[in-house]
Amino acid sequence: MLKEKAVASLGQPSLLMPAWIKAALAANDRLKLYLTLLQSAAQHASTPDGPVGRWEEDIAHAGLQDAPWAQELVSGAYYDDDLLILPHMENLLEALSNDLSIMARPVCDTGQASASDIAGRRDYWLQQLHTLADNEGLPRAALNELTHGDRQRGDSLHLLVMDLHKQINALSSELATEDIDGAHAWQVNDDDRPLIRAFMRGLHRTAALKFSHPGLDTAVTRDGERLLIQNDIGTNDVHVLVIEVQDNTISLTYSDLHPGRFGFFRQMLEDMGFTWQIFDPRVSEGLNAGKPYMVGQARLEAQNNAQLQAGLENVASRIVFVIDWNRARKRLQHFVGKSQAVELLSQAARNDWGHIAWLMAGAERLVYNAMQSLDIEAFQVGDRLDDVLGEAVASAYLLELLRISSVLLRQQQPISLVADEARVLLARVLRQRTFEFDLLAEHAAFTHALAEGLCDALENPGDAAQTQAQVLRAKNWERQADHLLMDARERAERRPRWLPVVDCLAKADDVADALEEATFMHSLTLIHPAPGLPADVRAALCQLAATTLAAIQDQVKAIEIARQVSQRADGPDSELFLQTLWRMLRAERQCDELFRQARTTMVKNLHNAPMDLMLANDLAATIEKATDNLLQVGYALRQMVLNKTGMSA
């Protein structure tokens, strides 16, 4: 991790050492506690009946109140033959790796030749911890290698931590800095202090949202006319933010290896009034494995000192939201599309919830476990959340989960409570979901378009090109309606609860088929040398088609009202639903009568034109067939709603 090189590549001297030393000393405390907990877990596993001990005070002293897994590390340990099985072992190994990296930075990542030996030891133990993460437990030999303090037995993680601590203490004595609200500052003027405090005020406002994740250490110094502020965002070597303040202007240089996260941060600052200049992707020797990374500069021109301080405070408050952003985006994409995942992270940032709590609570495992805990018909292996719930409902669920995770973990509630909330919330969403009505409404929209198109064709017969366009458009709508039915059938193969939806859609598809066929048959009446239908016949057919269209409009209304019907079905929505439904069903009787009237008109006007009479009669019969099928749709929809709400039939 070569932050100094990254800062230098952005045209600034190193500002990192004071912040790194402070972070390293805190990491030292945590590492020693982790190793002590590990040894106590092994002792408890060997003598399960012995006292477990209380670790709350030590955990709090090390600043690990937001790591509830540490409390359970000792009490839940046991041996399986030669393996020490630890609850949350993956959390322990990740914490050891992160804090070892943080502790080694001041010694290993400054380019000093004398650091090569200890850097090699660091890299070795990082690799060992990574390898151990693939195991179900810790072998006794690995446990001893991690924790022993006897140099005659060779190196250990414990010995490396001790040696790093000595060197960090030596480095610390060489630096003369002051602390300004948590910022490591040196060689600053009195006029700089209000600006530094404004930046730290914004940082502290949201810093708790990073929990125990490394990052956000701040270093400040003056370089001539410029006040320089550097924030240690995280552990990646090119993820760097440097701020210059001069003459009421904030110039912020930001580098990132992830274009998506770069765009996310850029948008947050643009919303605050910053303007950006984006440079070509940069490649620097020794950084990001030689791969290109994004660099840009944002500027804000303040009108006075108050605006300048507000700009610094606002910028600082947003930094926490880029920590682990890409990791959160990838995990959200298990359930929604990429653009929606980015929007969820943006909303979580705007509401000051963040995403790290959700990651700590289990991220995708949290959601998958909630899905698996519910009715097996609701979710099956391979189901995507947005496929089952719809994108809007799935996104709303995930956003609420981001909020709940943030609130509960900041209250130092256990992760198990977040998991319970995730299950309860998903169960509530499933009870209220109307995704099946989404499919019905979309299909009804195509049917409505077909009916409108037929009415327009009957009322305003066009030329051959217009007629052909009407036929092709109707065919396209009918095919899209077919695809919705096929989608529902695929769902029903995995979840039987979709069978009533398939039944309703199949009947609705018969309506769409009849209307598409009627549009085609009408085109036959306009083929040369046919003169078209007489005005009286067209008027009768128009009335029949208009009544059918009105019934389909009631179908659309009934579906929308059905979304709002309460589960007890004792409110005004249920009465309105039934009134709309019965009006739709009565239209079938009206169309029967209109069909007879139309046939009478045809005989009077077309008795000398048998071909036209046949076509007109078949056209009227096909339209009337659509209303017959619509009657079946009404009954199926009624039964669906009765079953869903518990109303008596």
Write a brief caption for the model:
Helices cover 64% and strands 9% of the residues. Strands 4-5-6-7-8-9-11-10 form an 8-stranded mixed beta sheet, sandwiched between helices. It has helices at 3-9, 17-46, 56-61, 69-75, 89-108, 116-132, 140-147, 157-174, 193-207, 259-270, 305-318, 325-332, 338-350, 356-360, 364-373, 385-389, 391-410, 415-432, 435-459, 464-494, 499-524, 535-564, 572-606, 610-645; strands at 78-80, 83-85, 138-139, 178-180, 183-186, 217-223, 226-232, 240-246, 249-256, 275-278, 294-301.
Tell me what you see in this structure.
With 649 residues, this protein is an alpha+beta fold. Helix content is 64%, strand content 9%. The protein contains 24 helices and eleven strands. The chain has helices at 3-9, 17-46, 56-61, 69-75, 89-108, 116-132, 140-147, 157-174, 193-207, 259-270, 305-318, 325-332, 338-350, 356-360, 364-373, 385-389, 391-410, 415-432, 435-459, 464-494, 499-524, 535-564, 572-606, 610-645, and strands spanning 78-80, 83-85, 138-139, 178-180, 183-186, 217-223, 226-232, 240-246, 249-256, 275-278, 294-301. A hairpin with a 2-residue loop joins strand 8 (240-246) and strand 9 (249-256). Helix 6 (116-132) packs across helix 8, helix 19 packs parallel to helix 21 (499-524) and helix 19 (435-459) packs antiparallel against helix 22. The longest helix has 36 residues, at 610-645. The chain is elongated, with a radius of gyration of 35 Å. The two termini are 69 Å apart. Mean pLDDT is 83; it is low at 1-14.
